Amino acid sequence: MKCARCLLQLQCLRLVGQSARSAAQYGALLQSVSSSQPNTLRSAPHQALRGFHGSPGHAKGRPVPAEFIDEDDKKRDKSLVAHDDLFERVAKEVKTKATFNKVVDVFIKRDVRRRGHVEFIYAALKKMPEFGMERDLVVYNRLLDVFPKEVFVPRNYIQRMFNHYPRQQECGVQLLEQMENYGIMPNMETKVLLVQIFGEKGHPMRKYQRIMYWFPKFKHVNPFPVPQQLPEDPVDLARFSLTRIANDRDAKVTVHQLPCTDVTESGDQITQPHIVGIQSPSQVELLAKHNPNRPVFVEGPFPLWLRKKCVYYFVLRADPTPPDEKVEEPFDPERCLDYPLQLELDLDRDFGDEESFDVEDVDEGPVFAMCMTSRGEQAVLNQWISGLQENNPILGRVPTLFRLDAGPRELQGAADTESAHHHGPEPETQKEERQPQEEPEVKVEEEPRTSQRMKL
Question: pTM for the complete prediction?
Fold first, then answer.
């Protein structure tokens, strides 16, 4: 027993000595490292220290600095500007369909993967009116062909439910909406392209189905359609506009004066405006029955918009006839057999029915004639009145007064109105020139007026 106890004591002493020796060696190592660390730091001052690594949850919760968001927006703006510059560089001199297709070919051949195709299509849609291609169906199909095929087609119902590739689908819908705004109906090629790009259940395909459902229903709903291409000749445009306003098939259009240029003895060129008038046989009868002691008025100009073009017209009218001078004429039953002008119905009434009706009947006075001219001056309108005296001799005995507004100097069209907002205030010389033209209006206002101006 004593021998075994002695052996255990010797083993413990051996272990304690080894631990003391290792501790001494570790202390010497620490001293050497601490003594050599300042030298290493001095020798490598630019050495970067290793940072701490955070958890993924901590990284997701960190706020994104605002400068990074601004940089992304700047990159997107630069991409749009780059595509706009591409259109400007290719089409420097002439902007036609050939140059537009050339820009599309340049973008397609630049990269096989079609990087930036969404921004390019947006820029192309913006530039189409400048090239005159906003109503060309072939160009719209060409832009749809820029999309990569069979990449944005959803593979399962989950992708379809969560709006697979939303930016590309929104771009396709925007292209179809521009076609809808310009009244362009898609064809079978458009459908095939949409199925190849977005599939049969995508949002652009549904937009295509809605267009194909509603467009045929509303294509011919307007009984008085306006043609896409308006006449370039001002006389033909005035003839078309007046027949549209008159709403009478028996009305006769008369060209009192054609536009021409005369050269005086001094060498100055004088441009004569066109004067086109319209008058129906019923208006001739009303003017023949007019009281010569009561004046007639020339009023205008009134605007008439035909798509993006604005024209102006003038009317020859009179004040309403006083009640004591009105003469009720019996209706001719054979005047119109399809639509009777007077109905006499003896209907049974209940005790709760009211026999009196509150109807606001405003008599604005008769309109005897209308005209259009490129220069709304009193001297030009006097020529129109002189031309009307051939079929209406009563105008030689009836006083004629002019109620003219500022005229079409302020509104010449859609383009002129936009440019007018960018100009500064008018010079004082122009204001002084317009003041004498407003004097006849002040004189005419002294005449008693029982009704306001009438606009058709």
Answer: 0.61
